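Handout, page 2. Input:
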Amino acid sequence: MHRRIIRRGLLATAVALPIVSPAFAETITPISEAQRGTAVTLEGTVERILDEDEFRLADASGRIDVYIGPNMVPANVGDRVTVRGIVDDGLTRDIYAREMVLPDGSVVTFDRRYD
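Output:
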């Protein structure tokens, strides 16, 4: 049964790659090493809720603001989460999240209306 789930997940990822390009990093990137304009997977603690659709993520290497708009932040301050998204290539280095893994293991996918 797990193989079916994994294969479906891989198929969904393969279908989504042209939309997301480049693909999300398979490994966890330290926040301090997240490069502008790249797809990354970050893991850290929700340090602060900045707005209803933005929060600050922190790890041992640094902090970064994560935008999930127009969605509500599904986590609380102190939660350890994983975020997959694109590092903004503008003046500020923040993340436009596509997906978030919550402490209970559930995955939240964010609507991409901010593209």
